[in-house]
Amino acid sequence: MAAATAPGFEHMGLDGRLLRAVAELGWAAPTAIQAEAIPLALEGRDLLARARTGSGKTGAYGLPLLQHLLRLKAAPSAVAQAVRALVLVPSKELGQQVVRSLRQLAAFCARDVRVADLCAQTDLAAQRPVLMEKPDVVVGTPGRVLAHLSARSLSLRHSLELLVLDEADLLLSFGFGEDIKSLLCHLPKIYQALLMSATFSPDVEALKELVLHNPVTVRPPEPQLPSSSQLRQFVVRCGTEEDKFLLLCALLKLRLLRGRALLFVGTLARCYRLKLFLEQFGIPACALNSELPARSRCHVITQFNRGIYDYIVATDEEAPAVPAEQPPRKKRRGAAQSKGKDPEYGVARGIDFQNVAAVINFDVPPTVESYIHRVGRTARADNPGTALTFALPEEQDALAQIENTLAGENGESMLQPYKFSTEEIEGLRYRCRDAMRSVTKQAVKEARLREIKDELLNSEKLKAYFEDNPRDLHVLRHDKPLHPAIVKPHLRNVPEYLVPPSLRGIAKPHLKKRKCLRLRHAGANRRGGSTVSAERAGRDPHAHIPLAARGSDAAFLSSPTSSPAAPATRCRASSTPDAAPSARPRRPPELPPVPHGLCLLRGGGTAAASQPAQPRNGVSPCRTLRGGRAQ
């Protein structure tokens, strides 16, 4: 939200090309952090800025950074091309987001200012040609930047003028402390430093002493999270683990939760378990975790922002440091290996997920900072949002800590109880139990292996292909069903009798047409007969039949005394397997193929024979089957 008395961007002394880019981005007025930080940064001061997530911190340091570079380019004396600015980020996902934002701000001065991305998961040798061109700005994680400095493919000692540490509260918690200390040895003695953070923690104070020199603290008078009028925070105290899955199923299947949502869990196993659970109900979702390749993770985030996916199941893992005196335990054979996890993964921290309507904490965050970063993915800028937290009895301590820290001025908790009647959704409980039984530990393990293999294939093997065919990359999807568990088709639809009475007419569950498998018709027994099902063909087998013809045919097949001529014709067609194809009588066009399976008869018997059956609810009437033959 813009500051009430703050001057606009046009009064900050910014270059006209930057003002034009700001207008293109739709930034009408600076936010609170931008109004205070930009003038101070333009004066060359070191800054320690704290602002809640989604408040525009990237623009707060991006505009002064670009303005400083444009001022150097416009100087009368020639300035040698070199790396002048370094932006350190804690994760690859955030790094790519920062690169994209800086390039958008430099859209009208792209020839003068070049931004290099070192966050991509490629070899150092592949990034060396980019650094040989000496870009003006380099964005990367501390580990990757230090690797290039050690390999002498990047030099900063005589050229760096501005250092930015974005999401500084995470740089040390992600284990980059030693990398930052080593990296500082490669920097000049005098440079400007900007430290941006969403929270002030002991780690941030340690980083402040390490990097900044006589800094100015910028802390706008705003809460850590948006106000209750913009961000609604709810908590549901669940009695059992089953209650969590039941409530989530009701929210999504009954369409009580509208819009796109992020679902946060605590571990990798629960990430895939929840994804497979949603697959049982026909709800596609993406799994986002540290085991996936960085290129796949960034592609998922990009497609989510484009509106291709509605739900993302993400992990927000915070691996505690293992004490030195504790010996590492020997893992049993076949156990999941953690060596594939990316230490530079951080999907809940600083990533700008666009148009997120709700954040669901399926597991209570372990710390207050984690809760702030999770919930901060919604209600960004001036958009509204909802946060819903599921809490078990054993998670009450962590929940109480969050409530006490984020309590309002009067001491009331910002997390309001989510009011609903459990009895209203009890009808869905047995379906949730069936789905949970299907999602076994073995199914979760197979799902993890299968998706990682698929994503590695998409990420590495097809990299060159996608570079030559970028349009095909846009249609690459990451929410395809894994199906290691037995999927029960009946769970996809919510019958009317399971919808709570108070929601009938309001809730709109995902309803899909039932697809009946085609029975081998009378000619299917012959050589070359059709055995393709309607489901595999991807179409309704009765779609080309008029409704009246469907009803009369159903009535005809349900009564053996209605007209024996047509069945006799079918029998003669099936009893001559050696006849020439041209001699075989064709099926009358008004008769659809007989469905196969356990179909219920609607209005059978003599009543069906005397009066044609009409389709109900858009589903064609079924026929009576005995022994695979129509009666």
UniProtKB/TrEMBL annotation:
Lineage: superkingdom: Eukaryota
Domain DEAD-box RNA helicase Q: residue ranges: 7-35
Q: Which GO terms describe its biological process?
A: cytoplasmic pattern recognition receptor signaling pathway; defense response to virus; host-mediated perturbation of viral RNA genome replication; negative regulation of type I interferon production; protein import into nucleus; rRNA processing
Q: Which UniProt keywords apply?
A: ATP-binding, Helicase, Hydrolase, Nucleotide-binding, Nucleus, Ribosome biogenesis, RNA-binding, rRNA processing
Any single Gene Ontology cellular-component annotation: cytosol
The main location is nucleus
Q: What class of enzyme is it?
A: hydrolase
* Location of the region described as Disordered in the Swiss-Prot/TrEMBL record: 320-343, 520-540, 554-631
Q: Which reaction does it catalyse?
A: ATP + H2O = ADP + phosphate + H(+)
| SUPFAM superfamilies (alphabetical) | P-loop containing nucleoside triphosphate hydrolases (SSF52540)
Q: Where is this motif: Q motif?
A: 7-35
Q: What GO MF terms are annotated?
A: ATP binding; hydrolase activity; protein sequestering activity; RNA helicase activity; RNA stem-loop binding
Q: Sorted alphabetically, which InterPro entries does this protein's record hold?
A: DEAD/DEAH_box_helicase_dom, DEAD_box_RNA_helicase, Helicase_ATP-bd, Helicase_C-like, P-loop_NTPase, RNA_helicase_DEAD_Q_motif
Residues in Helicase ATP-binding domain copies: 38-218
Its localization reads: Nucleus, Nucleolus
Q: List the EC numbers from the record.
A: 3.6.4.13
Q: Which residues form the signal peptide?
A: none
Family indicated by similarity:
Belongs to the DEAD box helicase family. DDX56/DBP9 subfamily.
Q: What does this protein do?
A: Nucleolar RNA helicase that plays a role in various biological processes including innate immunity, ribosome biogenesis or nucleolus organization. Plays an essential role in maintaining nucleolar integrity in planarian stem cells. Maintains embryonic stem cells proliferation by conventional regulation of ribosome assembly and interaction with OCT4 and POU5F1 complex. Regulates antiviral innate immunity by inhibiting the virus-triggered signaling nuclear translocation of IRF3. Mechanistically, acts by disrupting the interaction between IRF3 and importin IPO5.
Subunit structure comment from the entry: May form homooligomeric complexes. Interacts with IRF3. Interacts with OCT4 and POU5F1.
Protein name listed in UniProt: Probable ATP-dependent RNA helicase DDX56
Which species is the source of this protein?
Aquila chrysaetos chrysaetos
